[in-house]
Amino acid sequence: MKHYLRPALSLILLMAVITGGLYPLVVTGVAQVAFPEQANGSLLRDDQGQVRGSALIAQDFQGDGWFHSRPSAGAFATVASAASNLAPSNPALAERITTDAAALYQAQLGPVPQALLTTSASGLDPHLPPAAVAYQIPRVAAARQLPVARLQGLVEEATLHPWVGPPVVNVLALNQSLDKLGH
């Protein structure tokens, strides 16, 4: 029995050291050297160096003077990140979307873009399609007393064109650019 037990325990201890200690240290070290920005949370900072958020996590912006992110089922809390899990046939989902659509609707712009009404799978997606951001431009321009063309320029500058998938706008980065205008 001892003949089998000792090698088994030695192997368990060795694998625990490798997979629980060495491997995580090596991966963390490589990430810090090769991708330091991403390994440290893709943080966005203001001009004073203060952290304003992460480029990977949406934030809740209130008021007409800000571009708003997608709705969040978890109130933008990273611990509670998740979809609402409400089926398309659920009356609560239909009621929330109808209420949100009525609040966001602008007759001159037509129907509210779907991205402003539906949550992402995680509830924390920081990106919106450019059309959903463009829909908000008249509201933000009126609240900040800025020309629409100036805001359209900010949106174009903030539009990301990933290698795969459609163009997107990071709402936090866009609002940081808006904040720099000082209106």
Describe the structure.
47% of the residues lie in helices and 8% in strands. With 183 residues, it is mainly alpha-helical. It has a domain at 58-181. It has a three-stranded antiparallel beta sheet. The longest helix is centred in the first third of the chain and has 33 residues, at 2-34. The protein is elongated and about 80 Å long. The model has no long low-confidence stretch (mean pLDDT 85).
Provide a short characterization of the protein structure.
The protein is 47% helix and 8% strand. By secondary structure, it is mainly alpha-helical. It has a domain at 58-181.
Secondary structure: elements and pairs:
Layout: H1 2-34, H2 36-39, E1 43-45, E2 51-54, H3 91-104, E3 127-128, H4 130-134, H5 137-144, H6 148-158, E4 159-160, E5 168-170, H7 171-181
Antiparallel strand pairs: 1-2, 3-5, 4-5
**Residues in β-strands, percent:** 5-15%
Low-confidence stretches: none
Number of continuous helical runs: 7
Count of DSSP strands: 5
Distance between the termini: 78 Å
H/E topology pattern: HHEEHEHHHEEH
* Structural class by SSE content: mainly alpha
